Structure prediction request, 174 residues.
Amino acid sequence: MNNDPDPAAAWPVTQMAEAAVATEAAAEFGEGVWQNTIASADHALEEASRIQRGVQQHFKLMQEARALREELRRAHTEIDRYRGMHARVVVGMRQLEEEHAAEMSRLQAENEMLLVRHRVYKLLAEHYGVAALRFDREVFAQHRDRVLEHVLYKRRKGVSLSSITAAEVAFLLL
Prediction:
């Protein structure tokens, strides 16, 4: 029980039927090619879009890198400027410290000398007051020089100014 048609009983195939079958096969083939072409084009467009987004992202990153480099360059310029200002300030401060130290030394020496002279005059005044001597400029100048030498000598020995008395210098003025 074979259900297949008998080949002898089949209709003869005409040229028109062959052409219709060929056209139908070609349409199926063309439709498949067309669908493949569309899919390929769609895929290519997606890839191109992805590449374009990548290029845009890369371009944006390059612009950010340039901006950061420019900002870094400005920061280095500012750092150099502040470094130069700092160096000038440090040099100025050191110079002021040296000048201050020199001025302080000068003022201390001057103050010390004024204290010595003050003590000399005080000792002379006490001596002249106790001895009831008459005041003569030339004699006073000589006495002052002797007392000054004595006071300076005592200072070099480490004796304080207040411990030098009028009685101690009286023998110098005889």
